[in-house]
Amino acid sequence: MLFFIIWLLVLGASVYLFKRSAGSLSLLKPNMNSIIFYYSFFISSYIGSLFIATDTDGYYMLNKLTHEEYRMIGFVAVSFVMVVFPLVMFIVSKFVGFNAKKELDSYLRKEIVVPFGKRSEFFWIFAGLSFISLAAIAYTMLKTSHIPILELVLRTTDMSPGELRIEAQRNFGGNVLIRNIFAIALTPLMSLIAYVYMVKTGEAKWILLFLALFGGTILITTYDLAKSPIFFYIIMFLLLRMYVGKIKFTWAKLLSWGSIGLILLIGMYVVIQGVTDVNSYLSINSGPIGRLIFAQIAPTFLHLNMFGEAIPFLDGRGMPSIILGIFDIEQVKSARLVMSIAFPEKVEAGTAGVLNTLFIAEAFANFGYIGIIAGTVYVAFLVQILYIVFLRLPKNPIFLSLFVYFSINIPRTLVGGFSDFLFNPIWFLVTGLFTGILLVIRLKIDLSSFWLRRKSRTEL
């Protein structure tokens, strides 16, 4: 009962602070901060933490705990994040004079402006990038010895879906950067940008480009049988349509979309993982429900249990490889290390890779409890600054699509690790690439105008 009372008090404080920092926690007006609250913290982390703390979870992963006191310690750590994270965001908002509700409502009403009007420079640059991305998808397919979704449909192998997925990820025969950057990272974002241009211009060239990129995105997000990428892309697309003004979220629509999503998810569990027992879908510790409330948070408790006890702290060796490379230090990912210790048989069988979890786990694995405190403050500060910047940037197809992209990918990364918030090459690339294109075209236009004005003055 004590844990439940604490849980309710912490949840109440978190809801209040998140609402003040986000502007709205209404499911009918989703935004980056509200998605963080609902997905990263409440559903993926805090519900499961209560069951784990009271030892009523029955989740297989928690059987690997060697010290039961870490059930309580983990609950306290997650409760700390639930309150301090939005508190830091609230303080940042106050410091920069950010009225979250007012500015979010203003952004939703704001008209989308297409930069450079009818000029075609951006389209041709974008079309070139689209060709590269689509070619990268074809390259990925050609260099993947076993395409999981194709193998599953044609049943041409004896490997399980899990083995096929690991095979596709680990034994990719091509350049990983081409696959990860141009195929997996760029294509979904470019499809969003193309969609906004299509809606705002109605031009056939943008319609064709969007359809090609949309089809490529569906392929690259489903080919390896991963369940979450396609769902997150659909959520991104729906969120973009809301910001564009093409749809308005209602409770009836949310219910229908949720029902369709649930049916698709169950279908994927049946087809991909062979789960046919009805009880598995109704149980809180297995199937989709267990995946939602335990799978992302249970490894946090394992991290707290193992590091400093069975495993020495990493002392920074889990930080981004680009930083460690300067000091000639090899990167050690805590999520992979915990998986190899907790489930060595799965790693050896090739059916498991890493145990991604709430970002504080990786921060703890590297720097102990000070990592949890400093990491929470740092990430919350960074997230709120990004939220404020995007709401204050011009609402054009590029910035709007980047806003939607980060509105989904930041919540996903919060339950994936800490090091990506120190340096994420994909985030830097996509942001720098498209803002760079805008700046270059703007500079070209300004220089052309300057030379025309100079020429006119000379002729006079």
Automatic annotation (TrEMBL):
UniProt entry tagged with the keyword Transcription: no
Highest taxon in the source lineage: Bacteria
Residues annotated as signal peptide: none
Entry coiled-coil feature ranges: none
Keywords: Membrane, Transmembrane, Transmembrane helix
Keyword Transmembrane among record annotations: yes
Transmembrane segments: 36-53, 73-92, 122-142, 176-198, 204-223, 230-248, 254-272, 367-390, 397-414, 426-445
Identification of the protein by name: Oligosaccharide repeat unit polymerase
